[in-house]
């Protein structure tokens, strides 16, 4: 069983992205029958997904868990759905790291409006809560890079009819980030690392039950 | 050109639903070349959509604008997408007016995960802002009755390949509601009425340009 | 009976301050036995209060109602207390319109730590709610210009033992401001104008009952 | 040097109060030249302060650090001021554990409107941030039990002219609480314990420099 974990480089005004650190931790996890690979993705529309899909083609994972930062959230939030849109909004544009600010652009013209994550989100939520870690299913991954990545990966799996479980987990700001900006809700990096380990185990176990291999 | 507007009865602990009042106001609008019909929907999973779809079959509208309350929001928010799920969550269940609390239930097994609204959301946002009315596109209509209604109507139109524009507009609490619960952001009922009139005009105009009729 | 109303010029990144507009409206109020004077104050530490106190010395009002903007609040909030501090915080400094960023500075070394508003705050809250206008007593006017003004005026009245009722009312962003920044809760300028009229009447009536004149 | 730490029993609908657990941890701290005593206070108006003041008379502490829960906050927040009021508000009353709901009641008729904490709040904030723990000075301890305790203790010290440093620290919900209610911002109990240790050291050191002993 191979699990591919992705995270993102820092973006916007933030010099830290806790999902970058999560990748370093994930590489050290020792999980029975689970091989872990990781990839750090650029905060750029389309390119984020292209790099993850290229890595999927090489690494041939059974499970893909894309991870991203949702500063302002209080809990670890598995995303329910990716939607076929790139949009930085009509007000204050929020550019990606190359300065792009798409508005209401479709990711893929010929593809469905939305695609559900195939990770066991409700089970992830339960396992995390059992460990006293705040978790909740989210119904929107937004319309920025995170959603772009989620949608494109699910669409790639759909088009090629692959037996891969895939989805997206949003993590809150780390407590280190909140120390600089105390109005940000946070979880410590160690708690998020502990959570990621449980998420990987839960997804690997679930994938095995659904697909074998 | 016929436009069908739906609203909801009160739900939860709230004795007021501003969208119920909006229907009464909408019936009095005088708009050139636009005939308005309205329907008040029950806050019940599935039944909400069944009643709206039945009304659509009778009234044969060109445009359907479903309206709902999103207490806590600060602006009028056209919804981008309806998703194929009914879910009152794993924590504090939030029952409908019959006491139902579905969890991760699909609305229609054979249908897509998500369906985009076909109302001109970006144009609605612009027209409202031009009138100094706060507006923003929302990327999640939640997983309760409002999303249920939006998804089911879009799916009905899709299945029957109808030339109907349809979507969902969430309205914030009315200022009257905020007077009882001052931590609630609000807009006055009159402002929401003014907004609905503009939304109808914008949708009718857009439908005419896209479909004629 | 003379009532002095103060408001503020715009500050920070905002080009509008609804309390500046409130002054123009207040000058047009026609209230029996109540003469209204107004003053627009600069968003500068200390100078804000000096100008208001100078105006008090000239105009000899019975009641002083200082008004300010609290962008982010949902209701009209009479302030309970002014505190003897000027502080723009230890993180992101939030300078006044001259660029000053005091930190933990006392307003007046020889004076009390806090002084209660002497406006009839609870009655104001009730009168506004009766008119379906959201209102709530606030327990902190912050540590910026608004609190500086409130504290210094109350302290001036205390030192000189004057028979003047005085306090501070925070107003939310106007709906016009929220149209530019739709995540801001708001009230329409007209609702705030209506509220200010009721606040003046309530304060004048209360002052008359307490002090005569 | 003796430091007295107080915490509270659970209140409202919450079965946990992280400050109760902090007391158990504090009793195990090993700090050079600092003796620690603790007291668990009831969530009852006036009685909260009476019990703490009685304990102060017995234990003769040099420093009093009262601790309370502020569910909803994201950071550890030293309070700047206690105010002379007990108030559960005019809307939804929020009773203490005996069912009392005072409204705009003065704590002590003959005493000042507000009294500043004498703990080194800014230094506490700095020391916590240096350890990557979110911290910020708060300008309102509310008008419930926490403020009641803070004000009454500061007023007792003032009336008797005692050489005691005293103040109040609000802690956010624990991560355990957030696991049950994932929309609550939180910090892990261990982080709050680590913070309390630093707060005690900082206050003891500061007291020694100001007063000797």
Automatic annotation (TrEMBL), chains A, B, C, D:
Q: Where in the cell is it found?
A: Cytoplasm
- Supply the EC number(s): 3.4.19.3
Q: Which reaction does it catalyse?
A: Release of an N-terminal pyroglutamyl group from a polypeptide, the second amino acid generally not being Pro
Keyword field: Cytoplasm, Hydrolase, Protease, Thiol protease
Write down the PROSITE patterns for this protein, in alphabetical order: PYRASE_CYS (PS01334), PYRASE_GLU (PS01333)
Q: Which Pfam families match?
A: Peptidase_C15
**Coiled-coil regions listed in the entry:** none
The Gene Ontology terms for molecular function here are: pyroglutamyl-peptidase activity
Q: Give the stretches traversing the membrane.
A: none
Catalytic residues identified in the record = 79, 146
Sum up the protein's function in the record's words.
Answer: Removes 5-oxoproline from various penultimate amino acid residues except L-proline.
Q: Which family, according to UniProt?
A: Belongs to the peptidase C15 family.
Quote the protein name from its UniProt record. Pyroglutamyl-peptidase I
Q: Which organism is it from?
A: Mesobacillus stamsii
